[in-house]
Specification:
The chain is an alpha/beta fold and about 180 residues long. It has seven helices and six strands, in the order βαβααβαβαβαβα. α1 packs parallel to α7 (about 170-180). The structure holds magnesium ion (MG). Magnesium ion binds near residues 8, 10, 11, 125 and 126. Magnesium ion (MG) binds near residues 11, 12, 126 and 148.
Length: about 180
């Protein structure tokens, strides 16, 4: 079976901006490309799992999200990084959603489509909902990065994240995964 790393986008791979909608606003954190490539070379399939409620709120469209994602993918492709699939939940928080984190639904979809062993897979993000998404799916470990909202989350709800691994950024998350996985 295959194993995977599921990655939140905003605040994890790229700088957090409120309702980022344009490719020019994308700033990839230092070290992300090489870190993802190391994971890939170790046999992990890479997925992005992103809530984009700005679509449901009417701030931007799914096409805008797609443009941003394509830009991100193109930038990382220059470092030989390839994602297996991108999952987007576009609904506003008050609207029923199939996959909006902390729902594990997209991870189950990925498991079924790509033959993944979730118990050998990891979830990385900067918010509690990212960690919960991983736990709800039964991943080996949910990892909180201190980038984006991560440091704030660590301060705000320490008791809720005690099961998570907490690391400074995606590069150290990759170190953790390569040690554990
Ligand atoms: Mg995030």
């Amino acid at each position: 079976m295959n194993k995977a790393v599921f990655l939140d986008r905003d605040g994890t791979l790229i700088e957090e901006r409120d309702y980022l909608r344009r490719p020019e606003e994308v700033v990839i954190f230092p070290g992300v490309g090489p870190s993802l490539r190391r994971l890939q070379e170790a046999g992990f399939c890479l997925f992005v799992v992103s809530n984009q409620s700005g679509v449901g709120r009417g701030y931007f469209t799914l096409d805008d999200v797609d443009l941003v994602n394509r830009h991100l993918l193109a930038e990382l492709a220059r470092e030989s990084v390839r994602f297996t699939k991108i999952y987007i939940a576009p609904e506003a928080p008050d609207v029923p959603s199939r996959g909006r984190k902390p729902s594990p639904r997209f991870l189950f979809d990925a498991r079924d489509e790509f033959g993944l062993d979730l118990s050998e897979s990891f979830m990385v993000g900067d918010k509690l909902i990212d960690l919960e998404c991983g736990w709800n799916a039964g991943v080996k470990k949910s990892i909180l990065v201190r980038t984006g909202y991560g440091a704030e989350c660590e301060r705000a709800v320490p008791e809720k994240i005690s099961r998570a691994a907490i690391v400074n950024d995606l590069a150290t998350a990759a170190d953790f995964i390569l040690n554990e996985g």
